[in-house]
Write a structure and sequence with these properties.
Largest sheet: 3 strands, antiparallel
Order of helices and strands: HHHHHEEEEEEEHHHEEHHHH
Distance between the termini: 47 Å
Catalytic activity: L-cysteinyl-[protein] + hexadecanoyl-CoA = S-hexadecanoyl-L-cysteinyl-[protein] + CoA
Keywords: Acyltransferase, Membrane, Transferase, Transmembrane, Transmembrane helix
Helix content: 40-55%
Number of helices: 12
Enzyme class: transferase
Subcellular location: Membrane
Structural class: mainly alpha
Family: Belongs to the DHHC palmitoyltransferase family.
Length: about 375
C-alpha cells in the first residue's frame, strides 16, 4: 500500500505543478486588465471619446482572447474510437505470440478493416502498448496525459493540455487573439509610454503600470507573432508540430505532404466550411479525428480499395462495421468528395488522364 500511496501523492503533486504556467498567464492577464483599464484608460486618458473607444475595442478583444484560452485549456482531448482498441480475445492472442512478426500479422489482420495508412519507420503497424490500441493516422501517445490523442500536435504547458484534433482550432484562435491583444495594448499605450520619458505624465503610480504594460505587451507580441506564424504555416501545409519534426510514414515511405490537400482545403479542415464560425471558439473542424483524406495514390493494398462512404458499393460494409460512430455533416462530405485528386492546382483533364492510366488509384478518405 505504501508504494501505491506514494505514487498517488507524486501524481497529485505533478498535477498541481502542471497548473503553474496557466496560473502565471492568468496573473499576467489579470494585471494587464487592471493596468490598461484602470491605470491607463480611466486614470491617464483625459479625452472621453478616446477613452470609450479604447475600452470598447479592448474588451471585445479581451473577451475573445479569454474565451479561446478557456476552450483550449478545458476542451478534453479526443481519444481513438473503440474500433481501434483490441478486443479481449485479440489481447490474449497477441500476448501468446513471442515473435514480433507473428504479432504484426495479428495487428495487420485487425487493421485490415480500419482506415489506417501510416506505419512506423520500419513499416510496422503503429500500436500503443500502454493503451492497447492500433493508432489511427496522426494519432500519438502523450507521455504527460498518458493517453493516445487524435491528431496530436503537442502537449502545451501554457494550457496544461494536449493540443490536438478537438482543440487545435481553439489553440489557433488563442494565439491570434492573444497576439491581437498584445498589439492593441502596445499601439494604444505607445504615446503614453513616450510621455513617461518626456515627463508628460502625472507623478502617480499609473505611469509605472504604463511603462511595464508597454514592455510586457511588446515582448509578448514578438514571441506570439513567431509562434502564430509558424502554426499558420502548419495549417497551410496540413501538418502537426510532430509531423513537421518527423514526417509521417506510409507504405511507400516517408511523405511530409501526405495529408496536404491544398491551402484552401487544409484551412477548412481545421476551421470548417462555414465562414461565420471561423473567428469564434466553437468546434467547427471537419471529420471525427480518426481518419483523414490524403493526396496519396499508393495506398496499402491490405486496406479497402476505395474510401468508405464515397462509393455506394461499400455502403453496406460500412454500415456493418459501424465506423465511424458519427456521420460527417453535408458540408464536410462536400470537402471530402469534391475533387478526387485533392490537389487544387490539377485541372479536370489531368484528373481524367490519371484516372484512365491508373484505374486502381484510390484516395484515403474519412469513412
Amino acid at each position: 500500500m505504501a508504494p501505491s500511496g506514494s505514487r498517488s501523492i507524486k501524481r497529485g503533486c505533478q498535477r498541481v505543478l502542471y497548473w503553474i504556467p496557466v496560473l502565471f498567464i492568468a496573473l499576467i492577464v489579470a494585471w494587464s486588465y487592471y493596468a490598461y483599464v484602470l491605470q491607463l484608460c480611466i486614470e491617464s486618458i483625459e479625452d472621453t471619446g478616446q477613452k470609450v473607444v479604447y475600452l470598447l475595442v479592448y474588451h471585445a478583444i479581451f473577451i475573445m482572447f479569454v474565451w479561446a484560452y478557456w476552450q483550449t485549456i478545458f476542451t478534453k482531448p479526443m481519444n481513438p474510437l473503440k474500433e481501434f482498441h483490441l478486443s479481449y480475445s485479440d489481447k490474449e492472442l497477441l500476448e501468446r505470440e513471442d515473435r514480433g512478426e507473428s504479432q504484426q500479422e495479428i495487428l495487420r489482420r485487425i487493421a485490415k478493416d480500419l482506415p489506417i495508412y501510416t506505419r512506423t519507420n520500419s513499416g510496422a503497424i503503429r500500436f500503443c502498448d500502454r493503451c492497447q490500441l492500433l493508432k489511427p493516422d496522426r494519432c500519438h501517445h502523450c507521455s504527460v496525459c498518458d493517453k493516445c490523442i487524435l491528431k496530436m500536435d503537442h502537449h502545451c504547458p501554457w494550457v496544461n493540455n494536449c493540443v490536438g484534433f478537438s482543440n487545435y482550432k481553439y489553440f489557433m484562435l488563442f494565439l491570434a487573439y492573444s497576439l491581437l491583444y498584445c498589439l492593441f495594448i502596445t499601439a494604444t499605450d505607445l504615446q503614453y509610454f513616450i510621455k513617461f520619458w518626456t515627463n508628460g505624465l502625472p507623478d502617480t503610480q499609473a505611469k509605472f503600470h504604463i511603462l511595464f504594460l508597454f514592455f510586457s505587451a511588446s515582448m509578448f507580441s514578438v514571441s506570439l507573432a513567431s509562434l502564430f506564424t509558424y502554426h499558420c504555416w502548419l495549417v497551410c501545409k496540413n501538418r502537426s508540430t510532430l509531423e513537421a519534426v518527423r514526417a509521417p510514414v506510409f507504405r511507400h515511405g516517408t511523405d511530409k505532404n501526405g495529408f496536404s490537400l491544398g491551402v484552401s482545403k487544409n484551412f477548412r479542415q481545421v476551421f470548417g466550411d462555414e465562414v461565420k464560425y471561423w473567428p469564434v471558439p466553437i468546434f467547427s473542424s471537419l471529420g471525427e479525428g480518426c481518419s483523414f483524406p490524403s493526396c496519396l495514390v499508393n495506398l496499402d493494398p491490405e486496406q479497402p480499395s476505395s474510401p468508405t462512404g464515397s462509393n455506394p458499393a461499400n455502403k453496406g460494409a460500412a454500415e456493418g462495421r459501424q465506423f465511424p460512430s458519427k456521420p460527417l455533416r453535408e458540408s464536410q462530405s462536400r470537402l471530402l468528395t469534391s475533387t478526387p485528386s485533392w490537389t487544387e492546382s490539377d485541372n479536370a483533364a489531368d484528373k481524367d488522364k490519371k484516372g484512365a492510366s491508373n484505374p486502381g488509384m484510390t484516395i484515403e478518405n474519412e469513412a
